[in-house]
Amino acid sequence: MFSGLRLRLSLVYALAALILVVLIGGGAYLVVARYFSNVTDLALRHKMAHEFHALGAPLPPDLANADRDWSVIRREIAPLPFVQSNPQVERREEEEKIRPGDDERGDAELPRALTTPVDAAELAAIVVLPLDSSGRLLFNPNNLDLPLEPDQVAFQAALARGSDLRTITMNDGRRARLLTYRLTRADGPAALQLARELSDQEQVLSQLMLGLIGLGAFSMALVGAASWWLAGRALRPAQEAWERQQRFIASASHELRAPLTLIRASAEVALRDTPSDTADQYELLGDILAESDHMRRLVDDLLTLTRLDSGQLKLVIEPVNLADLLSRVHRQVARLGEQRGITIELTTVGGVVQADAERLQQVLLIALDNALRHTPSGGTITLAAAPTGRMVQITVTDTGSGIAPEHLPHIFERFYRADPARGRENGNAGLGLSIAKGLVEAMHGRITVTSALGAGTTVSVALPQGETTVAANDL
């Protein structure tokens, strides 16, 4: 029991750590990806502004803000460990001015977006594609072979809206960021396309992802080991207390058996020697015998539960012929049913199960005893068994008073009784179904109860079909 609880606690600790690692790693990955995306777009706009200036074309308003946005993104990503700030470059960017007369186009009147340098690596990675009115490349102004052809979809979108920004996939499967602007001058290109291949960024992101996964796996291994150790430390006091309780119950059960046996034997002797004309004494001795039997059953039930909890109950799992077992159980309870005016029927019986015959008989007697307690005179109890897939289902169905819906979820709890007064009156301690559940699960089966008030109750026991004999198994 505690090993399963320790495993669940360790999984909870590890899951919490995994969520934390995923949040931190995912956040770091998203920050880097956002940085690359923003820097790429701003570099494209910055380069486009310079190209507009070189062609002497009117500068669109959104390009005039490229320098301001670039400064903002530089400040936002400056704390990142892979971004190295250069105070001299930043000071030069702030102090650099275009002096009048630098060239014949009057650079003194240019927006500052055209005068502030961006990272040379970003600008060098951008490819310029001047396009004619049909979207064909006019010439190659770059110092390298073009890695891609002009994108006609982006060209048409720029003609319609003035500009277009998108990510495309090239013929070789690589991706590129593409910025297209329409030009209004009649003596130059109809549009400019700037492309920035993203392979280097995607490679960095892939390496970052692999690093985060490796770090996360290593962290989870450490967290898993620490969680297992921590769960063991947390559960150790409870486990020791539980073990002491189990030892006490087992010892008490053994110690109580001897005096109970002596009390019962003494009461039987006294009852035989009591004159028949002393009715009060007969009744008193009869009560002693009944209570002794009740206490003996309670001690046996507690001892069985203790062994189930500690895994020390010895079971002999072997093929059991249900026809023989159910016939024997039916004969035992049929006479008791006749005394109470209850008909006990044995209907469809078939199949062989892997079980402990003695313990399975105990489970069925518990179910039949409950059915007899809650079925009025004239009622019927039906015992049946039939294969269902790889299991064999044994059912005990009665026509008794049934169980209220609010009690059904609790009927397998120890000492739980839907009607405490009636249960005590009938000698029911509320341990029967708990024992039945423990025994069935120890035999790798399952037990369920369905009921409706006034209609009766059905107890179903499903056990694996028997094929070959299994050696004794200590559970």
UniProtKB/TrEMBL annotation:
<keyword id="KW-0597">Phosphoprotein</keyword>
<feature type="transmembrane region" description="Helical">
    <location>
        <begin position="208"/>
        <end position="230"/>
    </location>
</feature>
<dbReference type="InterPro" id="IPR036890">
    <property type="entry name" value="HATPase_C_sf"/>
</dbReference>
<dbReference type="InterPro" id="IPR005467">
    <property type="entry name" value="His_kinase_dom"/>
</dbReference>
<dbReference type="InterPro" id="IPR050736">
    <property type="entry name" value="Sensor_HK_Regulatory"/>
</dbReference>
<protein>
    <recommendedName>
        <fullName>histidine kinase</fullName>
        <ecNumber>2.7.13.3</ecNumber>
    </recommendedName>
</protein>
<dbReference type="InterPro" id="IPR003594">
    <property type="entry name" value="HATPase_dom"/>
</dbReference>
<dbReference type="InterPro" id="IPR036097">
    <property type="entry name" value="HisK_dim/P_sf"/>
</dbReference>
<dbReference type="Pfam" id="PF02518">
    <property type="entry name" value="HATPase_c"/>
</dbReference>
<dbReference type="Pfam" id="PF00512">
    <property type="entry name" value="HisKA"/>
</dbReference>
<feature type="transmembrane region" description="Helical">
    <location>
        <begin position="12"/>
        <end position="36"/>
    </location>
</feature>
<dbReference type="InterPro" id="IPR003661">
    <property type="entry name" value="HisK_dim/P_dom"/>
</dbReference>
<feature type="compositionally biased region" description="Basic and acidic residues">
    <location>
        <begin position="89"/>
        <end position="109"/>
    </location>
</feature>
<keyword id="KW-0418">Kinase</keyword>
<feature type="domain" description="Histidine kinase">
    <location>
        <begin position="251"/>
        <end position="467"/>
    </location>
</feature>
<keyword id="KW-0808">Transferase</keyword>
<keyword id="KW-0472">Membrane</keyword>
<keyword id="KW-0902">Two-component regulatory system</keyword>
<keyword id="KW-1133">Transmembrane helix</keyword>
<keyword id="KW-0812">Transmembrane</keyword>
<dbReference type="GO" id="GO:0000155">
    <property type="term" value="F:phosphorelay sensor kinase activity"/>
</dbReference>
<feature type="region of interest" description="Disordered">
    <location>
        <begin position="84"/>
        <end position="109"/>
    </location>
</feature>
<dbReference type="InterPro" id="IPR004358">
    <property type="entry name" value="Sig_transdc_His_kin-like_C"/>
</dbReference>
